[in-house]
Each structure stands twice: as C-alpha cells, then as structure tokens.
Amino acid sequence: MSDHAMAVSSATLPDDLSGEIRALKAEARAQIGDVEGLFAAVSDFIAQEVADIEAVRAAGGDVWPQIEYADIANGRVTDAQVRDIKRRGCAVIRNHFPHEQAAAWDRQLVAYLDDNDFDRVYRGPGDDFFGSLSASRPPILPIYWSHPQMEARQHERMADVQSFMNRLWVHESEGRTWFDPDRNLLYPDRVRRRPPGTTSNGLGAHVDSGSVERWLHPAYQKVFRHVLNHEFDKYNPWDAAWRSDIGEYEGSTMCSAFRTFQGWTALSDMPADQGVLHTVPIPAAMIYVLLRPLLSDVPADSLCGAAPHQALPISEEWHPLLMRALTGVPKINAGDSVWWHCDVIHAVAPVTDQTGWSNVIYIPAAPWCDRNARYAQSVAEAFTEGRSPDDFPEEHYETAWNDRFGPAELNAYGRRGMGLGEA
Length: 423
Hints:
- The protein is α+β, with helices and mostly antiparallel strands.
- The chain has one domain (35-206, 243-417): B-lactam Antibiotic, Isopenicillin N Synthase, Chain (Jelly Rolls, Sandwich).
- 34% of the residues lie in helices and 14% in strands.
- The protein is globular, with a radius of gyration of 21 Å.
- The two termini are 42 Å apart.
C-alpha cells in the first residue's frame, strides 16, 4: 500500500480511526482484487491444518513439538523435528535447565520478594492492563532484575536455545541481513507466580506485537506483500524480511523489540489441565486474521475487534475456524521452556482451584538487529538504576531493593545483550 498508510504510521494515531480504516480496507480490496477468492483459498489451507490438529488431539498425540535441550546443544535435532516446529509455530524445550536449578531459582525469587516486602508494597496492575481481552488478573509481577531472571537470561543454555529458534527463520533475504541469529537482546520481562487454589478465567485468545499496526504499518504491509498481491502461495511466515523495521504505536501493550519467538521458562511443574498456555499452532493463521475484516459481513470501520494500544483479539465471533485449533501445552516440568512464533495466536485457559504452583520467567528470543540494538540502550539504563523497562508501566519497585542483580554480575552474554561489549 501507499501514502495513505504512511500518513497513519506515526507514533501518535488519531482518536477516531474510522476514516482511516475505511480507506485502508478500500485500498486493500482494490490491490487484492478477488478478496473472497483469496480468503477461500486461505481458509481451505487453514481448515486442513485445523483438521490435522483435531485428529492428533483425538488420537491422544502431541500437537506441540518437544525437543530435548541436549539435542540442541549437541546438534542432534533432526530435519523432521525442524519441519514439525515450523509447521506448528511452537515448541517445548525439555530439560532446558536442570530441574533442581529451576526449583532453586523459584526459591530465590520468593526470598527476593519477601526480603523486599513486595506483598505489602505491590499496588497491582492498572485497569487497562489487558485491554479488551476477556481475562482474570493473573499474578504477573512487575519484577525484572532478580538474580533468577538475570541468571536465566544470560545463561549459555538460553543463548543456545535462542540461537536455535532464531535460525528457524530466514534471516537473510531481499538483499539484506535482517538480524544476527546468534546474538540476542537481553529483553527484560516479568514473572508469573500463580499459587495453589487459584480460580481464574484465564486470558482470551490474542496476538501480541501489534494490533492495528498489522494493517496500517508500512513495514507490516511489506511483510505480508505476497498476500496483498494475491500470491498467498509465496507467503513464508518464517521469512524475517522487513519485520525488524516494524514499530508499534505507543501504548500500554507495545513491544519495542523484534521477537522471533515469545517464550517462558518454567520454575515449577505444571499439569496440562491447570490453566496452561494454549496456541493456535498455525503460523500462517495471521493471514486469515488480516483478510477477515475485508469481507462484506464486517462493518466498514471495523477490524474485527482490533484497536490501538491493545493486543489483537481473536474471537468466536470473527474467527471460529481458528478457535477450533486452540491447543494447550503438554505437562511442563520445572526447567522446561515454551516458545511460540511472534504471529501465533495464544491464550491462557481457565482454571478452578489450581493444583500446585504455576510459576514462570518470561524470556523471548529477540535477535540482534538495529531495532533491538536501540532498545538495548534503554534496557541498560533501566538495569543500572533498577527501573521498570520502557515497555512496561512505570512502577519501579526495585530501585532500592536488596539483592538486586548488579552490573558486576553480568557475564559476556549479558553484556552483549545490553550492547555493553562483545563476548
């Protein structure tokens, strides 16, 4: 698309996007031509993937690919396993860290919180924390600089897995190198500590890393150029071309980094029926989501629920085919890690009277590129001062906390991940 999209791609959007959305949809329909025919072809592909996922689940099989960390470290991952991850867009890395290491981190994190009287000072998330998503408030704590988090982020085992995940992508195309797969931004995120006995409505299906941006941002239009040109067969969700050029509009849910995969590392054992992460394990499902608002049954100024500054919602109302594919992670053990492609739809299932703890550290794969190098500067500043990172609310609990991870404890991976030096 053209100058219209460029005009609405600044960091500040108009309060009323109705006119922009109408113009965008008219331009997209004109560029694609046979929108209904393209959507039918995409739907046929998605329906085949959904049917396969349903059949695997019905047979008691594993939809989520599962890889042993030792196989990654020793180069023993098979071509068939790689194809499986690319098809599903998600993976569990078993024994990413030793079970006892993860359990020790869990205990250390509790001690860090208790020593700094977190239960008394914590104010809770703001009212707009989850935007329009159907959700309970999970105990996702705005803590960033504990020893367990930093040790996991800068661990050699984390670097190994991040490199493996990044290399599933085509990182050189269109005459450019889009990122360095073997160096990662040390992206600071929070922790989840969900206690036994929790009853929660979970978190509705959604996609992060942009909502209206996925239609309006020029770089996203380049990412999905083959679809806009009615060449769906050429679209590759694993081609990184233009993705590191994407920016998000300022707001409460933005991410300043390019993440090939979102992810978390488990600090506790989690049964598969206890309010776990679910995904729609079809990376190309984003094409279905992008085309859906262009059909005639959608109001002219609607993007099927997408709104500025919020996660992109996926719903039974607009995306019933996709919702059929929502599939939970298998049983997770402390030390395992879970990963999903940046376009993959995900949700958290409800739980009643949860059995045991459900504790994780959020750590993505965010390969080194110009965008991530820029964000690394603010990460380093926030780390030094113990502040909340720029992508998160300005709560700053840890600025004067005891036992905060310090600059002298950074290893080579940590320094490189914040742009402070080479390994």
